[in-house]
Every structure is written in C-alpha cells, then in structure tokens.
Amino acid sequence: MPQNGPIILRIAVPSPLRRTFDYKLPEKLRSKIDHQTPLAGMRVKVEFGRRVLIGLVVDIPKTSDLPLEKIKDISDIIDSSPIVPSDLFSLFIWAANYYQHPLGEALFTALPSLIRKGEPAVASGIKHWQLTELGAQLDPQTLQRAPKQQALIDFIAQHSNCIEESKISALFSSAIRNQLQQKGLLESVVLENRPLATADEILQQPSLQLDSQQQTAINAIDLHSFNSYLLEGVTGSGKTEIYLQAIEQLLRYQRQALVLIPEISLTPQTEKRFRDRFNVPIVTMHSGMTDKQRLEAWLQAKSGQAKIVLGTRSAIFTPFEALGLIILDEEHDASYKQQEGFRYSARDLAVIRAQRENIPVILGSATPSLESLNNCNKGRYEHLTLNQRVNNATSPNWTLIDLKTESIQCGITDTTLTAIENTLKAKQQVLVFLNRRGFAPALICHQCGWTAQCLSCDSKLTVHKARGRLICHHCDYQQPIIHQCPSCNSTDLMPAGEGTERSEDFLQRRFQDYPVIRVDKDSTRKKGALEAFFSTADSGEPCILVGTQILAKGHHFENVTLVVILDADSGLMSADFRSHERMGQLLTQVAGRSGRGKISGQVMVQTHQPDHPVLDQLFNQGYHPLAQQLLSHRQQGQLPPFKSLAVIRAESIYPQLALDFLNLARSISEQHITSDTQLLGPLPALMEKRSGRYRFILQITSTQRSHLQQLLFQVAMALENTKKDNKIRWSIDVDPQEL
Ligand code: ADP
Ligand code: ZN
Ligand code: ZN
C-alpha cells in the first residue's frame, strides 16, 4: 500500500444494518499504531450519524465505492494492534454470514462489555505469592505455635516458592497469608506469562490410571491437527478423565485449551476437578461474572497467561495466544445454541473454529445429539465410545410404572413410595425428578372449570404456594393467588397437578425423619442454597433430592441409588420434531445420576404410556439404538440433519402485521428459490402468543446448504431494505432449536 495515499478503513459498528462503513485514517493518527498500516481487528472511534461509536476495523480496502472526499476521517484509534486475533476475527465473519446476522452486532455482542466500551485491552497479570528470602530460609522451630502459617509456608515451598493466589485461597484463609506477609516471610507479585518449566509442574494431582476403554479412546485422539471426535460415553464412564489427560498432554507443548460446558454455577464439581488436577492458571468465563472479571479472564486467555479456559457458550469467542484443543462437554445440551439476537451454536462453531485453526475438537456426551451421530455415520467425526462405567459400577436397572393401574398420592405411586422408603432405610439417597417448578401447573375452579391464564401468553399461570403468587413461566407476569373464581364466584379453587414445590411438600410430610431438598430455579435463587444442596448430597447421608433438570447436569453423587422420574409423559406429547430426542437425553441423563458409587442403582419411571415405543426402546436397548432409530425417522421425514432448516420469525402485538411481513418474506423468497429448496408457512410458532406478541414463522428447508444460505442472504437484504413498521420484530434463525 502506498505510504502517502489515504488509508481507507472498512469498519463494523454495532448496528443492525447488514453492512460495513468506510472511513479514512487521518495522517495525525498514523503514529498511534505499531505497524505501518493498520490491521483488521483494531478498535477505532467514528462519528456515526450524530453519535460517536466504537467500531472494529474489518478490512483495509485499496479503494472505496464512495468518492474519497465524501469519506469521513475516523475520530480516534484505540488499539495499537488488533484486539481480536485474525483467526478469531475470521471466525466472526464466518459466523455472521452463516447465521445471517449483522457483523457489527455479532462482534459486539460476543466481546466483553468493557472492550465494547473502549477500555484498554492490556492484561494486568496474575497475582502470585512467593516466599521472601527470609521466608525461604525460615527455621521450622519459629512457627511451632502457628501450624497453619507453617503449613502455608510448606505449601508454597512445595511449589518452587511461588504460587498463584487462587490456589492459596482454596486452602488457606487470607488472615494467615496476611500474618505471614506482616512478618516479612511472604510477598505478593504480579506475574505475566510464566512458562511451565518442567512436566512435573503441570500436575497438582497425579492423573488416574486409565482403564482399557479410556486408553483406547485417548490413543485415538491426535492432538496435532484438525480432527473432530465424538466421545460417546455412558454417564460415569470417565469422559472427564479423558479431557483432563488430553489437556495434560497439550500443556506439555505449551498450548492452551478451551473447555466449554453448559453451566458453571450449577456444576461446581467440574471446575473443581480441573483446578485440583492442574497447577496452571485456569480462568472461567460465564455470565455470572462482573464486567471487570470477564475482561481480565479474556485478556489472560489472549495473552497466553491462562492455560485453560473453562466457559459457557459465549466462551467460544475467547481469543487465545496458542489454542491447541477445544473440548465441548454435554454436546447435546440445548444451551449451546443462543436463542435470541446473534443465534449461533457454540457446538457447531467449535468444530468450525478447530478446523480453521487446525486443532482437534472433542465433543463429549452420554447422549449425543442426532446431528453429531449423523456426522459420525457420515465419517465426518471420529466416533469414540466408552460403554461401561469405571470402577465396575454397573449401569442402573430401569422399571416402568404404569400410572393408569396404580394408586397415586400427589403424583407418586405406592410402589414408588415403597422403593423410596427402602432406599432411605438402607441409608442411601433418592433423587426425584420432575421438570415443572412451582407448586402446581394450574389453578382450577372446581365448580365451573375456569383456569387462571396468563393474559399475555398462551399459557396457564403456575401456582407458587410458598410465595403466595400465580406466575407465568413465559413472561414472568405475577399476581397474588386468588381465592374466589372470577367466573362463578365460587371459592372452591384448587391447584391442579404437581410441581417440584408440591412434591417436596408431600415427601417431607411423608418422610419426616429425612431431609428433603428441592433444587430448581426458584430454590437456587436464594444465596447459599446451592451450596447447602451440594453439601448434603456430597455428605452421603440419606436424603431426598427433588428437582428439575438441574439435577440432570453431570453431578456425581456416590450415594444416590434410586432415581425416580415422576412424569415421563410430557416429553412424549410435544409437537416439536426434536421432542423424542430430547426426552431420551433427559431421561438417560437423570437416570445416570443413579448408582455411580459402589452400590448399583435403580431408576423408576412413572408414565401413562408404558408401551410407548420410545420408552420401550430406551429401556430395553439404551440411548444409542434409540438415537439411530430416531435418525432413520428423520431421514424418512426429510427433517434435519438430513435437510438444512432455517426459519424467519416475526412477531407483533398485531398478528396481521407479523403475517403480512412473512408473506412478503415468502414472496421475495419465491423469486430466488432453487428447486432443492422449499418454503412452508407463514405458520404460528409452537407457542403462538407470548409476552403479548403474536409469533409466526416461515420455514425454509433445503437439501443444499449453500442454496439455503444464498437464499437467506438475498431475503435478509431485501427485508432490511423494505420500509418496516416498527411494530414488527423479525429475525433469522439458522439451524433453529425451537420452532
Ligand atoms: P463422566 O464424565 O463420563 O460422567 P467421570 O470422568 O466423571 O465420568 O468419571 C466418573 C468417576 O470415575 C469419577 O469419580 C472419576 O474420578 C472416576 N474415574 C474416571 N476414570 C477413572 C479411572 N481410570 N480410574 C479410576 N477412577 C476413575
Ligand atoms: Zn368457577
Ligand atoms: Zn405470560
């Protein structure tokens, strides 16, 4: 590029417009950058309309479509070098194209908020504590009366006299640290990238001796180039141990690992296992962090200081200095797909990112998604299997209980109650699963049949007895519980059906000598509730754990030997084409909490449809054969993953406006469509009315992914350029998880 000509910068700004904007780099700002010419991925300030926005340089084109004199100068340049490394930057561009989302918005929603606000992108280093000269030569007699202080000195001495603060905090109180500091024995230092000196330093705890299945799996993983692995291992088969050992190998050649999990706060055991095993800086990335913590973790990953990043969905956009491996646990989990705004799938992007950076990716699950199994069938992913539990723990025994033929109290049959009682008497733990929170899913008038409905949604209000409220689980509308029927004035109003609060209530009255602990979104809102749950569950004392799908998340409780699924029917009746897959996954995951220790486990499933083919296949053959069967149904029905699917969504408080908009989308589509692509709709969404808005979709399916992409692109551009009523919200959802 000529040194003296004007430099044009093509810039993405956080705007819903699907385009970039050209600006010029004024002479006076050139000295602010490291290189002679700017690079993509640097932040700049630009005047945009009447506002000043922070934008990202996307490209430095040789020419612009606009005449030079019409191009404005940027107002300032924030970074002297790119804050988003080029490989990550190209992933963003790929994702914005694939998910049909404006690049500026995609970039800006995925970056830490302080970066979006223009905060400097410089890592401050990681706080360590080291022994002073005095501390290192201390006579052990000196601290005889202060054994804890001596223990901390010994601990640091075992780690070459210097260790991260987070490792100390896990074991020693800050008071002990401060006492030693005051005595001049200890000092804090902020260290930047500390290279790992020897292999011994990587591990804090020795790794486990792998069993032969685990060994075969890990031997198959090539850490040196791109490859996608699907690690399908039954619950308790030791998948996490494989992740840990793959990372250990990787750390030996100074690379970093990204580990994605669906949830961090609900699964503290996972984080603990990583921290216990490794003696390297580990950072977490999740929504529960402050902006400052998030920025710090992001910068530590980018600078290479953090060797392992453990994060939820959006951590797929973490920059790394030397990424060497991506692991995505519970790959079937729906939370990997963002359901609003920039609707990306972190699972699919993990594979794309690994491919672009030529590194391996391991997707792990006991119940893989049909998409991933299909990718194995097609030879795109290598399929690794662990079909037995470690330490000879046996897989649980299933029993189906027919709700039609049994006497029932509060949704629980006598057979189930007897099994619960026997388990508690044997000093073991019981887990009771019900995927409905609240006391009861409806409030019904016994005289006239009226039910309390949400006025804004196609949904009933849930009774929350402890809080004395009726709550809509879709829009969060709340009102006090009413005691008189608004339709017939009768006072005979009754909660109908069971939620977790009611089951807890009933079980606690029935089994008064044992603790009953409820775990759901309501109970865990209280501070300390989750800790109390884990401490009781971990203690192994006999108790009943009642809860929603939070209980299905990879927990490992040695003494749970009975899992009860109160209602398997809801998943069998949904109209969503993924409902059977989801139900198979959920039941298998919940059941997998049983019998993980020395005693074998039992699973009791209550249903009105004991002969349902899905239940039958799941119990008699297991998840994998069920999944293969469901895949062949998908193939016959020409559903994903055998066809690519996208939907255009529109919603409005005026249903006709949303429908008109999608009819327009349909007619634009018809102008561009190819013969391998079909349109369906506009149709009402599965829940037509939510939060006061009527929701519709236009489905587009194709056997040719690229044709679908081209069509979507053209439709998106055309829709963006039509004059729109601001009473309509619309979006494009590629590979939707919900309809
Ligand atoms: P998964 O992730 O498949 O559910 P985990 O990795 O959590 O399985 O393993 C289940 C339990 O077995 C854990 O307590 C783990 O420490 C233990 N474990 C895993 N692999 C081994 C092994 N090779 N030897 C002994 N114990 C193991
Ligand atoms: Zn009534
Ligand atoms: Zn509602």
* CATH architecture descriptor text of the largest domain: 3-Layer(aba) Sandwich
Q: State the low-pLDDT regions, or none.
A: none
State Rg: 29 Å
Biggest sheet: strand arrangement: 11-12-10-13-14-9-15
Write the layout of secondary structure elements.
Layout: E1 7-12, E2 21-25, E3 43-48, E4 51-59, E5 76-77, H1 86-98, H2 103-110, H3 113-116, E6 126-131, H4 133-136, H5 147-158, E7 162-164, H6 165-169, H7 174-182, E8 186-191, H8 199-202, H9 212-220, E9 227-233, H10 239-252, E10 256-260, H11 268-277, E11 282-285, H12 291-303, E12 308-311, E13 323-329, H13 346-357, E14 360-365, H14 370-377, E15 382-386, E16 397-402, E17 408-409, E18 412-413, H15 414-425, E19 429-433, E20 442-445, E21 462-464, E22 469-471, E23 478-480, E24 493-496, H16 500-510, E25 516-519, H17 529-539, E26 544-547, E27 560-565, H18 570-573, H19 579-591, E28 602-607, H20 613-621, H21 623-636, E29 644-652, H22 655-672, E30 677-690, E31 693-702, H23 705-721, E32 729-734
Parallel strand pairs: 9-14, 9-15, 10-12, 10-13, 11-12, 13-14, 16-28, 19-26, 19-27, 25-26, 27-28
Antiparallel strand pairs: 1-2, 1-4, 3-4, 3-5, 6-7, 6-8, 17-18, 20-24, 21-22, 22-23, 29-31, 29-32, 30-31
Helix pairs in contact: 1-13, 19-21, 20-21, 22-23
The structure holds adenosine-5'-diphosphate (ADP) and zinc ion (2 copies).
